[in-house]
Amino acid sequence: MSSGEWIEACDVDDIEAEDVIRFDHGDRTFAIYRTEKGDFYASDGYCTHERFHLSNGLVMGSVIECPKHNGRFDIPTGQAKRAPVCVDLKTYPVKLDNDKVYIQI
After folding, report:
1. Less Cβ crowding at N or C end of the chain, within 10 Å?
2. What is the CATH number assigned to the segment(s) 6-104?
3. Average pLDDT for runs of 10 along the chain of length 105
4. What is this structure's pTM?
């Protein structure tokens, strides 16, 4: 795990189960996910194929599908799972504290 700073991204209740939201911090954009099991994850916000924002995508279990060309990534690992994406997403550690979601960047 990196030694980056923890940044408050949102409230736990801001994300429904099996959903994703956009989080901007400085000049960077992230995607914050909540799986159907209620686990939280974070990744870079743009698809590695054509920089389309993943917050407009579809969360299915532990997979995010990009809305542009339907490429898929594994949410916990960022691994590219379906063409046209072939470059993995960078993921970030997440922690919950006092009903807040924090990511380490």
Report:
1. N
2. 2.102.10.10
3. 81 96 96 95 95 93 93 97 94 98 97
4. 0.92
